[in-house]
Amino acid sequence: MRRLRMAAAVAVLAMTVPQALGGASVANAAPPAGACHDAAPARAQVRAQPWAQQVLAPERAWPHGRGAGVLVAVVDSGVDADHPQLRRPGKVREGRDFYLSGGHPGAFDCVSHGTGVAGIIAADPMPGIGFRGVAPDAEILPVRVSDRDLGDQGEQLRIDPQVVANGVRYAADQGAKVINLSLAGFDDFAVIRDAVAYAVARDALVVAAAGNGQRDATIAFPSYPASYDGVLGVGAVDIDGARMTGSQIGSYVDLVAPGAKVLTTARVDGHAYVDGTSFATPFVSGTAALVRAAWPRLSAAEVARRLIATAAPSRGGNGSAAYGHGLVDPYRAVTDGLDTRGPDALPAHVPLPPDQARLDRIASEESTAETAKWGTAAAIAVLTLVVLLALVVPRGKRRRWRADRAEAVPVEPATVEPPEQVFLISGR
């Protein structure tokens, strides 16, 4: 049977030795007996604030809400509810395991993939730790549909489409307002398409990874479930805002988010640096949770449009195949238009009575100026007449006022002929 790939690239882990913060105990994750083929170990806790959290700064939106009351389904490898930043009571529900038979919960993880996704969405802030989730008060519904990313020989394992479809339907039936699908494939499976349509019809916002299969920047590959109607497709960028190598290109890319060397939670305890559109996707899902908490009357489609409309400009320009509509912006997504009050009404205009004294003064000044102007013109005219009379009268008396005869004007002007030769240099 054809299967679906997880969208995560190989994670680059910070350290391999567990290291607890002062006073914090290392958690005991307890998957069911035999559930994990080769469980990933605990990781060291990283204190520094990651670049993705610095760039997106979701805490700027927290005064308006931190995602409380919004259920986010993580359809993935499970979620380790014992992680120190995920163990707060009520944060991670029991969920369900669709990968193993036996009615197991989904609140355990063998490989840290789903735990990392859940951490980016909703990890609690912790003293001395720079990493925290986008919407720390959102609730996580773990839906386990896979076991491992890689096989014993390093090959990429695939997920049964029917298992994915069952998980998506379950998430919708549990009332998830946001469904995170950090997985992608080139094949269009009808069972997944129908399950996504089922979730969309129940007002769930489905957010899916664009995939990591891009090798040639000029060729667009298909990607599912990102291409399905009602799904927000998410690509990945690096710390410089450039498309992460491998992040797929196509019309299904609606937004981008940090996805290269981003920090997130690892199973049991600690943090890991990871790559892939798998980990860009939960930044958008967490932002969607913030919006759905702050704007509870918006439908899933309206939330999607809001996320797109408030995205920060990216290198590709608006609507590009590589960057979609830009970088997700949690603060703008929550706060734009938050004050819905109209402008205050202006008071009625009451004209002031005219200042008659001022008007009279202005009229007097204008009259004086006009009189002075005409007086000056008259004086200049009289002076001009006197000068003319002084010149004309004496001459007229001398000629006894007889007219003088003008000299005759020659018919043609006299022509001066040049000499026959013109010497520029006189000779000796």
Automatic annotation (TrEMBL):
Keywords: Cell membrane, Hydrolase, Membrane, Protease, Serine protease, Signal, Transmembrane, Transmembrane helix. Residues 67-326 form the Peptidase S8/S53 domain. Residues 1-29 form the signal peptide. The chain crosses the membrane at residues 374-393. Belongs to the peptidase S8 family. One of its GO terms (molecular function) is peptidase activity. It is found in: Cell membrane. It is a single-pass membrane protein. Pfam families: Peptidase_S8 (PF00082). GO terms for biological process: proteolysis. The active site is at 76 (charge relay system), 113 (charge relay system), 278 (charge relay system). This is Type VII secretion-associated serine protease mycosin. SUPFAM superfamilies: Subtilisin-like. PROSITE patterns: SUBTILASE (PS51892), SUBTILASE_ASP (PS00136), SUBTILASE_HIS (PS00137), SUBTILASE_SER (PS00138).
